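Tutorial, part two.
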Amino acid sequence: MRKSIPLLLIVITYLGLGILYIRQTPAWQSPDEPAHYNYVRQLADGRLPVMEWGDYDEAYRNEVVSSRFAPQYDITPITYEDWQPPLYYLLQTPVFLLTSGSLTAMRFISLILGAGVVILAYAIARLLLPQQEWVAWSTAVLVAFMPQHLSMMASTNNDALAELLIAANLLLLLKWTRQPEATRRLWWLGLLLGLGFLTKGTVYLMAPVIAVALVWPGWRHWGQIARNGVRVFAPAFLLGALWWGRNMAVYGGLDILGKTRHDAVVVGQIRTTEWIAQYGLAGTVSRFLQTTFNSFWGQFGWMAVPMPPWVYWLLLVLVVTAVTGLFLAPFVWPSNQSEPNGWLRRLPISNLQFTILALLMLLTVVLHVGYNLTFVQHQGRYLFPALIPLALGTAVGLGAWAVIMAEKVRQPHLPYMLPVGLGLALVLLDLVALYRYIIPNL
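Running the prediction step on this input gives:
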């Protein structure tokens, strides 16, 4: 029971901060929030949205956003998320009906889903590094209190459910790698993957990750691989086919995701080729990297409210410290293992588990870069599908330095101060971001 108290404190603090963000962030001042809200409104009216020409009006959207959503502007025409899968919005529809369309209530549902992400982040880190529980606490702290992530979890946006399903897939998959004979988990994994297909395109990243994990342990035993593949992908395909078939019927051809229709409709959205013509390739890449980093940590509203440069410099120091520590971790990590584990050496993480986490990060980055090859969307939140591996890696990297310092000063409990220090610093940053930057500027 005592071991669960730190996690309970993290979740309670997360919910408290999230409620502040819900109440203090002005209506619609989260990315794409009106479009997500209008999806639910259409479901409440009894119709499943269809992406149509006219759903995206760049000039009108910019005018509304620049006015800070002044009351004379109608948000009803902002419907460019109509191409999204429906599960998150179906979950929100009863809330919409019961609360007469309360945005606050709908934001709170997202916040609760985000709490599940925090808990699963802790569970994943604890599963992989059971002897260093402070790593699990640090991972949960990073997921819970990163300002941009907290802001997104406190908004009406399907990212919350998508991240929850990715986290649940990760946990089940990592558990299965330790007990490959537990085939029942594969059926549950397929169910969760299928629900992800009905939630958001980012969850599709888990499909190749799962496929690699199924092939890895015994690539010569194709019969077993095929049986495991059926256990996972049959239920996932059956659920996904409900949405894919509908899209082919509505949009025609093989547009199973509605993405072709979406790209055709969003006329006026800034294209990367336009930026290259204006800023050059080097300038475009520089802006991409800087804006992605800044907005990963916190750039609020519709990317209009950044934090001061010195905050990002401090966060960059934190990241560099974590990355260097991550390379040191396999050599300094305390271990009860008598046998080294390849490159990972003392870290009790198998090569397969490491590959699962690394592949999810790689695919997330590739998807972010690939999207930006067409449209200018330098938003760091697009890296949040891989937030748990990123947070775990950060916790391990910072933890390596804490282990080194603990050995220097002969204080073995020093690493336990890492989640405390991280938590206090990020909670303070959350409050400063809300009261110094978001409220005055939005």
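The radius of gyration is 22 Å. In part three we will examine how such features are distributed along the chain.
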